[in-house]
Amino acid sequence: MAHDHDHDHDNELDPFAARVRALETILTQKGLIDPAAIDVIVDTYETKIGPRNGARVVAKAWADADFAAWLKRDATAAIGSLGYTGRQGEHMQAVFNSDETHNLVVCTLCSCYPWSVLGLPPVWYKAPPYRSRAVIDPRGVLEEFGLTLPAAKKIRVWDSTAELRYLVVPMRPENAEGWSEERLADLVTRDAMIGTALAREPA
Amino acid sequence: MNGPHDLGGQMGFGPVAPETDEPYFHAAWEKRALGVTLTAGAMGAWNIDESRHARESLHPADYYASSYYEIWIKALEVLLKRHGFVSERDLTAGKAVDPAATPKRLLKAENVPAVLAKGGPCDRPVAAPARFKAGDLVRTKTFHPTGHTRLPRYARGKQGIIEAVRDGFVFPDSNAPGHGENPQWVYTVAFTGGEIWGEGADPTLTVSIDAWESYLEPA
């Protein structure tokens, strides 16, 4: 990246921060945007819509076979039943890891990502190293996340080239029998739902 | 277009380098960049396909040197100028100088939750029956359109199998330049790693794309 930030505040000397501020100022002065709407958008994706949504979907699928079947058949409706709908989650597909197959999601062409269940995508998901290599060298990519798959495991990479958005349902860890959905959700990380990790093992 | 965005299989970008406990934003301006992009998009002057095409039309050197929010903002400036909302004089002055076109809509703060919850579904009815069914062998087109397309280069001219018939969806190649939605059936098409990458391909690999019907021919 051309701009690595090692601080978490705007600096007036940062030319890109100034460029964004100028654009917001121009649009606001012309009455084209409402800056308060920007505050609400940011708050939504900082505090309301994030990977906890997807974790609850996965935990419910682990705990409830009927929900899992619905999720497989009509992910948009099943996920919507938990209240997770909307932008970049309009057309959902859930893909289930199994003993035979590990699933991995990428968008080689841009940054398509299931916002309604995972929130905003991490920087690496949108950056050239992941987008270029996930489809040609997924095992090498997974190694960089600390995940080594057995040699015989099949890998399925889903390139999000259209408006379908993919949620990986990781395998349920053993030793979590009888856990509540809320506890199970703690085992489900963002990366596990992209496919660059497995679900956490119970401590 | 064979632009800088079409990254599948390219080499030389180095390791992925995931961050531990990555924050949602790495600088305060990124928050405003997200919000400006979404609120400006909500004016309704362009569609998602036109905005994607504006991003991938950045000069390759610029695209690769930019973070994703920088790409968004650079493309947004192009869209705002193209549609008459912002002028070069405005940008140079850093304030409103010239008058602007009238937007279809203004996204007010109180409407944000409803707008985000509704999203922008892209499925549309298609009058013709689907040409392919699950299990059909197909070959993707070999073509190099200069405009927007969602068939990545690595998956052109390849034989795959229809895994699922999805739904009718707005056709980006037509929608991006404003030639209409012209919806088509979309299919999930699976390819073996060997079909796509040939020699040295991971034998355990299957890659799928979601392809509009006109990208496909019977194999």
Protein described:
Chain A is α/β, with parallel strands linked by helices and 203 residues long. Chain A has one domain (50-194): Nitrile Hydratase, Chain A (Alpha-Beta Complex). Chain A is built from eleven helices and four strands. Chain A has helices at 15-29, 35-48, 51-63, 65-73, 75-80, 115-118, 123-126, 128-133, 138-144, 181-185, 190-194, and strands at 92-96, 101-106, 154-159, 165-169. In chain A, the strands form two sheets. Chain A has a two-stranded parallel sheet. Chain A has a two-stranded parallel ribbon with strand order 2-3. The longest helix of chain A has 15 residues, at 15-29. Chain B is of the alpha+beta class and 219 residues long. Chain B folds into two domains: 28-118, Nitrile hydratase, beta subunit (Cyclin A, domain 1, Orthogonal Bundle); 137-218, SH3 type barrels. Chain B has eight helices and five strands, in the order ααααααββαβαββ. In chain B, strands 4-3-2-1-5 form a five-stranded antiparallel β-sheet. Chain B is globular, with a radius of gyration of 20 Å. Classes of the chains: A alpha/beta (203), B alpha+beta (219). At the A-B interface, α1, α2, α7, α8 and α9 of A face α1, α2, α4, α6 and β2 of B. β3 (154-159) of chain A pairs parallel with β4 of chain B, so a sheet runs across the interface.
Task: Give structural attributes.
heterodimer, A: 203 residues, Nitrile Hydratase, Chain A, globular, B: 219 residues, alpha+beta, Cyclin A, domain 1, 5-stranded antiparallel beta sheet, 8 helices
> What is the CATH topology classification name of the largest domain in chain B?
Cyclin A, domain 1
CATH superfamily of chain A: Nitrile hydratase alpha /Thiocyanate hydrolase gamma
CATH class value of the largest domain in chain B: Mainly Alpha
How many E strands of chain B? Answer: 5
Percent of residues in helices of chain B comes to 25-40%
Strand content bin of chain B: 15-25%
Mind describing the biggest β-sheet of chain A? 2 strands, parallel
**CATH architecture classification name of chain A:** Alpha-Beta Complex
